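Reference record
================
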Amino acid sequence: MAWNLKEDLRDCLVAAAPYGGPIALLKNNFRKEKSLGSRPLLEIYSASGVPLASVLWKSGQVVQLGWTASEDLLCIQEDGTVLIYNLFCEFKRHFSMGNEVLQNHVREAKVFHTEYGTGVAILTGAHRFSLTTNIDDLKLRRMPEVPGLQKLPSCWAVLSQDRVTIILLAVGQDLYLLDNTSCSVVTPPGISAHAGAYVQMAVSFNYRYLALFTDTGSIWMGTSSLKEKLGEFSCDFRAPPRQMVWCTRPRSKQRAVVVAWDRRLLVAGNSKECIQFVLDEDSYLVPELDGVRIFSCTTHEFLHEIPEASEEIFKIASMAPGALLLEAQREYEKQSQKADEYLREIKDQNLLAEAVRQCIEAAGYEHEPETQKSLLRAASFGKCFLDKFPSESFVWTCRDLRVLNAIRDYQIGIPLTFAQYKQLTIEVLLDRLVLRRLYPLAIKICEYLRLSEFQGVSRILAHWACYKVQQKDKSDEEVAHAINQKLGDTPGISYSEIAARAYDCGRTELAIKLLEYEPRSGEQVPLLLKMKKSQLALNKAIESGDTDLVYTVVLHLKNELNRGTFFMTLQKQPVALSLYRQFCKHQELETLKDLYNQDDDHQELGNFHVHSSYSSEKRIEGRVGALQNAVDEYYKAKNEFAAKATEDQIKLLRMQRRLQDELDKPYVDYSLHDTVYSLILDGNHKRAEQLYRDFRIPDKRFWWLKISALAEREDWEEMEKFSKSKKSPIGYLPFVEICMKHHNRHEAKKYAARVTPEQRVKAHILVRELDQAADAAIEHKNENEMNLVLSKCTAATDSLVVEKINRAKAQTLKK
């Protein structure tokens, strides 16, 4: 260990993170003096004892330390407050375990890990338990009370069964199980009747197994569900152990419990025998996925079950195929013929593939690089004599070992085993290197393993940049340039996230400079608004051409600035002003009016008053008033056509109101066309003609209106009078068409005789007088008209007409 501890571990609060994680020590925590020199000192070291950070503890009395799954340090105080620090003793946040814990104080606490996340369990001075299963989604649970509990439990542990977190506690010889709703007494199956009182308990790393230590030296081992006994061992030690942890390996049937006293370590398993070690100094046990880490002031060791492949190869006088292959390779290097003898012996048993597999597997479990190389050389040597051996396992083991050897270096200090590395995954390992700010090593690993940029290098560079902006010793320009030089256009990099971190660190100008490198305006603008750089945000939004983004900035400015300043800002940005006007047309009409007034835009003001007269005003007087305002604005805009048209509309509205009052029929909001039509339809010819004169309706339009309305009214007599009142400006063919449209052939014939010669053929066809139509066509000597009549004829009924036209056409051709 690289540290130089002056205190014994027993005088410190100790917490070590699993998976080769860091070690936290809180020194002087148990002293009662409050002088400055005796303040507790919180120190964090790597697993190799390299100091990472330290800080004087200025908060309350700490009861327990623990690590989260993401390697954040939890400091649980006596008042129930939990403070969270990162690896470098930088405070992140805090939370409370509730008022009850605050009132009764924390007596004991445990940090545990489940599928939900990192949890905290608290035992208060009132002998009640409270817990949360996930500190990132804090939901406090108060566990049921233990009946008659007058003193603290002798020991307790947190179990996880069927995704439910429960607490097991011991009071003397009794065991109680606390779940969400009840407290029940449980008895371990098969435990000796003379076992005595429980003084220590341990739960395995995966929460599947439970170990109980009694004051008679009995160690009971079984499943955590307390339904099956795995074994029981009696030792000579009666004193309560300082620590008791499980030592198991995934997929192994061998299970053992490691018990530690001050200077003695005992390993008990399924057999009647045990292994004992004498410790030279105070040690601390850290349960792991596949063993137990044991560290002291000077050493850090790993106790684990020997994997089967390693045992087969390295046990004395082993004749396993892997052992023979290792010997064959060594003899081959010596250029000895024994290499051939060993190989023949393996091949005769047809076990060469098994020998290669054993060597590869054993190499993964070894920590010494030289031993790893020896085993891998043996595996490579054996592969040469196999025709079809898949090389993937060999290649990946070599890669994984190179990564593991790099992080096991004492300067890095992450002593992961092969099994832990596979469980942790390379992504999580990279995250942990990033947390330790070991960016170069993380990038080299990504490049070596050929990970995708998004998954590897890009993500690490982004973390590096976020750390870089926190450094205060360099100017904003230098930092921004350095980050851009390193990151460039690397895929997956978000400059906006880096800029956001710079802004959070109080470096606004640096954040702005970094945003210049962000290619996505949608990422730039929100952060600029957050930094109160609204004008710059508006410029960026307009440059992007994204109207939604412009709207976002404009509405933000509207809420942020006073009305006058807001309008003046928009005046400088025509695009933003135009978009805001569109917005106001649908959402804020009064604001739109103010904008037009400020711009002296009389034309648009006139349009606004016209629109509002119909959308907002219900009363005629109000509508007329709005239209009069529109007239005034149109005259100011020198748009005489719009002004006259609006004046006519006012005149029409007033007349419609009068007609509505006199005739008791709705006329308001009709068009001039519909008003005249409706009046004629109701027989009010004089009023219709008055409108015709007042509004100077063109003659042709009025005649069409009148004959259409009269035909709909079936007032054929009035139509005839009207046709004779003066010469028709539209001719008499429309009369024929209107009559036929209303199925009155008799009336249509009257007007067919009055049409001009050019339209006579068409008129006769309309009234189905094909014979006369043929005569007219022949008279005009017009072949097109003749053909038109022929097209209307049928052979059965109009054979004479057809014959007449054909004869006329033949005579025309002769001439």
